[in-house]
Each structure stands twice: as structure tokens, then as C-alpha cells.
Amino acid sequence: MWTPIKRHRDLWSALVLLSPALTLLGVFGVAPMVYAIYLSVYRFRYGTISFTGAGNYQRAFEDADFWASVEVTAYYTFLVVPATLLLSLAAAMLLRPIGRGRGALRTAYFLPYITSIVAAATVWRVILNPQFGMANALLEVVGLPAQAWLLEPRGMLHIISGGRVPFEWGPSMSLCCVVLFEIWHSAGFMIVVLIAALANVPREMEDAARIDGAGRWQLVWNVTVPMVTPTLFLLAVVGVIGAFQAFNSFYALTGGVPDTATRNLTMYIYAMFYENQQIGYGAAMASVLALALGGLTLAQWRLLGRRVYYES
Amino acid sequence: MTRFIRYVLLVVGAAVMIYPFVWMTGAAFKTFSEATRRSLRLFPVHWQWQNLADTWDGAKFDLFFVNTFWVAGWVTLGVVCTSLMAGYAFARISFPGRSILFIIVLATMMVPFEIILIPNYRLILELGWYNTYKALIVPWCANGFSIFLVRQAMRGIPADYFDAARLDGCGHFRFLLLVAAPMIKPTLVTVALFAFLGTYNSLMWPLVVTSDERLRMVQYGLVVFAGGEGAQRFNLLMCAAAIVITPTVILYFAAQRYFQDSALGAGLKG
């Protein structure tokens, strides 16, 4: 039993142990966010500052560029997250039972994740270069026409369908290139986490199902995958948060061009902040982004969370 | 699925993942005209080793690497200390307001970095830290994800250890340093690796809080090189990218013995 003196001492220990981390997070994480909300109700113009209340928020709702950037963010998130999750799950499942060469293969899958986005994007930009890039050399060999890749603002569906689909439908080809880059760059993290989760699935359970006559795919979908749903769910939440805030890959690969086809919400906010000095407006959009992210995470938790299988 | 098909799929997947690196290495040592010819040839006809020296001097990597290792080293040390202490407190000490504080710590992970950039920049100016190493190091010495990982690992240590230590009169600090920290070594290595890589790979923050070239780091060096000399000479640009990537790969292999799946897996099990 703990005496009051012990409790008192515990409180002191907790305070000492927590203060460095909490001070840093408070000063450089929480306070700036509050400050950004504060800035969002002011209007900055030609060096003057005036109170505008909800003015900046209203402006966002009427701003076509804002909604265009929301669309880019939405396409990006709903392409990157499910695709990365599915591919990572497939790779982790394939890696699971093999012995020889497992470490080398795992390293190969993890390698893109540890390299800097700036350096990796530099390499991708040269590979996707329309003039002498490897990607077009490959298309040439197969007999397909050369593409502009990152510089192509027209819709992917338009290009694949040979022009039957209007060019403004769906994500642009340049956005699809960024999506591919991001899947390549971030899959390694999910694979490593999923390998660990799969290692914890008890073999007896799968053996029992096999003896009961479950087929291979039945086994995968009805026994193994349900056991790792908590991990999949958490990765989905983390993935959506990351995709919503994506900045580095856009910045390093395209810089938002061509024709704002790859200008997502964070790129747009960044442009308002730094290039146009519209600090209040940028802060308002940033607050909307943070709010939307909180709402989305909560929704994911409530919709998917209850369908997740937890042990005990 | 037979073992053979399984291996074929995995090897094809792995080849796709490392293809850009192989291509980069090949292009880094090609002549300029060979690098800008549209072809499927991966490796150069004649390896141009001179490219390496040209790039190194052209991009001023000497200075940038020293700065990067200095800054990333301190950040790594800082993150390991703060998350070890906070993770322990959140996992093993009960105090009022613990869950709400922990939720706030997790919520900081959701704040987009670009959004707090301006307020933080102003803060750095106020503190008089502009153009100092402090500005590059201190704000990054704690993060929610690392605290979360350490807390999860601490919770994995059986309660008996704590009770036994407590009965023997061992306080929190001694227990943390002598018993708990060594037990969660894989997690600490993972945290350290992520902290180092995060700093090594950062671009935006150093650009915002420094203007003095003597404080700049490698990613900046690469970007400047890409916009200048490398904009034309793609072979040297690939060489610069290879130079920037190499230390992180070496570090990963060095840490691999400790960096096991389990460290991240245990943390993210929910």
C-alpha cells in the first residue's frame, strides 16, 4: 500500500521527469498552434493589421483555389493510404514464412523510407524527365508515346482513355506521379510494422483453421488479417494524418506546378504565408486543416474502430 | 502459392524499390553526354570516378556534413533523454491529469509542421536564437511519437520488476537508468535512429531560422547544388544525391542489429 508520503514523492518524480518534454512540446508545439488560431482572425495587408473576425474563414469558403487544393489533398489521401496499406500488407504476408534472404529483402523494402525526400525526389525527377528520362525510354521500348510525367497537368483518366474522358476529371498525371513516389517512399515503414504484427499472430489458430478445412484465401482473410486489424487501423489513422499534411514530396517533386495541379492544401497555405504574406488567411486555412484532421481521425475511430478485433 | 512464386513476387517488388538507387549510382558516374541520353543502360561505359571529387567540392559538402552531424547528434541525444523520462512517467507513475496530458502529447503529432512554422519563426527571433545552432537543435529535442513509443515499451516490462525494485528501496530515477532503460534498448535505438534521420533529412526549418551559410546542412547543400551547377550537369546531381543518401544507409546498417521489427511493432499494437 502506498502511503501519502510516497504519493507525494511520486508526484515530484513525475514532475521532474515530464518537465523537459512537456516544456518543449508546449513552447514549440501547442503554443504556436494557439497563436496560429489567434492570427486567423486578423487581416494582414500592406503592413497594417486589422481585426476581421470570421472574415478569413468566409474568404476560404468562397475561394476557388482553396477548394481546388482541397480536391488535390483528397485525391492524394484516398490514393496513397489504401494503396500503401494493401501493398505493405501483401509484402509483409509474403515475407512472413520465408527464411532465407528475409533480412536482405526487408532492407530493400525499407531503404526508400530512410533516404531523404529531397535526395530521392531529385533522382525521381531525372528518371521522369520528359527529354532523356528512363521512364520515357521504357515507354519507347514498349511502343507507347512519351509522356510529360510530373509536368503533365491533364487527368490520368484522360490520358489512359486516349482522350475519351474529359481532361479535368480525376487526378492529374503529375499528381499520380507524386502519389507513386509517396507509396514507394513510405511503404517500408508500414511493412516493418506489419511484419511485427504478423509475428504475434499465434500459429495454433491458423493450424486449427487449416485442419477445419479452410482454404488458403479463407485463411488469410478470415483468420490472419482480422488478427492484425488493430495495427492496420492504427496505420490507416497515421497514414491519413501524414497524407493530409503532405508537403515535402510535393515541394521537392513539383513545387505545386504545373497549373496548380499538384498544389495541395499545405502547399497553398505555405504560398499564402510566405509568398503573399497573407498571414491571417494562411492561419485560417491552417486552422481549418487542423480541425478537419481532428474530425477525420475521430470519424475513423468511430466508424472503423469498433470493427477492429482486439485480443482480450 | 508455391515458394517459388512467393520469392519471384518478393524479388520483383524489392527490385522496384531499389531500382532508383541503382539507377542513381550508375548515372552518378557517367559522363555528361551519356547521362543525358535517353537509354535503358544502367551503368556507365567508363566509370567517371572524378565526378565524386567534383561534386564534393562543388556542393561544399565538407562544411555541410560537419554541421549536420553536430546538429543531428545533439537532437538525437535530446530526444532520447526527454522521451525516456516522459515515457517512463506516463507508463509507470500515476498522478492526477496523466491521461489528459498524454492525449495532448499525442495531439501534437497532428499539428502540421508548416502551420506552426511562422509562429515558431517569430519565437526564435524573440529568443534571439536566429542564426544559432540552438535554433536548429532545441525545438526538435522532444516529440510525441518518441514519447509514445517509449511509453508502450515501458508498459511491456512486467510489473514485478517495479514492485521488486520498490521493495528494495530503489527510487524512480535509479530504476529508470539502471533497469528500465537497458531493457528497452531496441526501442531507444529506434527512437534515436528516427531522431537522427529526421534532423539529417530536414530542409524547411534550417532554411527558415538560419541565413548564415556557415550553419547550413546537407539537404540545403543538395538543393542549392540542384538549382545551380547540378541543374545542367545531371550526372553530378545524381552524384550529390548519392553522397547525401550514403550516410543514412550506413547508419541504418549499423543500427540494424538493434532496430528490430519488434521495437516499432510493440509500440503500434494499440
Q: Which architecture of the domain at 60-217 and 244-269 in chain B per CATH?
A: Orthogonal Bundle
The whole-number mean of residue pLDDT values of chain B reads: 88
In terms of structural class, how would the helical and strand content of chain B be classed? Answer: mainly alpha
Shape of chain B: globular
CATH superfamily of the domain at 60-217 and 244-269 in chain B: MetI-like
Q: Main sheet of chain A?
A: 2 strands, antiparallel
- Could you give the count of β-strands of chain B? 0
The SSE string of chain A, one letter per element, is HEEHHHHHHHHHHHHH
Q: Provide the structure class of chain A.
A: mainly alpha
Strand content of chain B: under 5%
Q: Tell me what portion of residues of chain A adopts beta-strand conformation.
A: under 5%
The percent of residues in helical segments of chain A reads over 70%
| Level-1 CATH class name of the domain at 60-217 and 244-269 in chain B | Mainly Alpha
Biggest contact: A-B, 94 and 92 residues
Radius of gyration of chain A: 24 Å
Apparent shape of chain A: globular
Largest beta sheet of chain B, briefly?
none
Radius of gyration of chain B: 23 Å
The overall pLDDT average of chain A reads 85
Number of strands of chain A: 2
Structure characteristics:
heterodimer, A: 312 residues, mainly alpha, two-stranded antiparallel ribbon, 14 helices, 3% strand, B: 270 residues, MetI-like fold, 16 helices, 0% strand
